[in-house]
Amino acid sequence: MLRFALLVLLLANAGYLAWSQGWMATLGWAPEEQAEPYRLKQQVRPEVLSIVQPGTAATTAAPTPASAPAASVAAAPAQPMPPEPLEEIIPEATVCLQSENMNEAQYRKLQEALRSSDLPSSSWEFVPTQVTGRWMVYLGKFANEMAMEKRRAELRAKIKACEDEMEACGAREVELDNEINSPEVYNDPDLLRQKSDELSDLRFHQEELFAAWEAAMEEQEAYEQTQQPEE
């Protein structure tokens, strides 16, 4: 049975090979020729084309003497114009200058000098700066050493209290952030507004604590400087 199946497959393959190669065209068994008729329909003026035999190609292609110069002139390719040499552009070296703070008289004098110079107005500018207020910490005249030590102890206690309260506010701030981001608070507009207001008040209180802590530290530093022995 297997031999018979193998023989049938072999004969089928041989028949397909003979059919695909056109060996059985005389019997009327051959594949259809693949043609592209739409390409013929796309031809442009096919009637002007003529088939030239190899022996007559030289005579038909040779131009007449009258038209030879014109043909040679028309056939000559146009010579491209050589490109003009590009000038190398070298950027000018620039220098940025900045002056220190100046008073009103110096400002006006420099402004007049710049306006009378050849420099363009876009190459210079004046940037006003504001000098912040200056202040100092003055420790009043204490009656005795005991009063000074008492004030020193008050400063240490105030600094410690500010630090402890700022630490507690920082922990409460983290709790409020987590509560605001939780679904039960985020989906409740009234509760969300309440927690947000509490967080804003807490941050404002933190700023007040930091200002008080900074003032106490500066006062303590000034006190320590007064206690240093003179060399």
Question: If you had to describe this structure to a student in words, what would you say it looks like?
Answer:
This protein is mainly α and 231 residues long. The protein is 56% helix and 0% strand. It contains eight helices and no strands. The longest helix has 39 residues, at 189-227.
Which stretches of 5+ consecutive residues score pLDDT under 50?
Answer: 65-76
Mean pLDDT: 76
Shape: elongated
Main sheet record: none
Terminal Cα separation, in Å? 123 Å
Strand content: under 5%
Structural class based on helices, strands and sheet pairing: mainly alpha
Count every beta strand, where a strand is a DSSP E run of 2 or more residues. Answer: 0
**Rg, alpha carbons:** 51 Å
Share of helical residues: 55-70%
* Tally of helical runs: 8
Following the backbone from N to C, one meets helices and strands in this order, namely HHHHHHHH
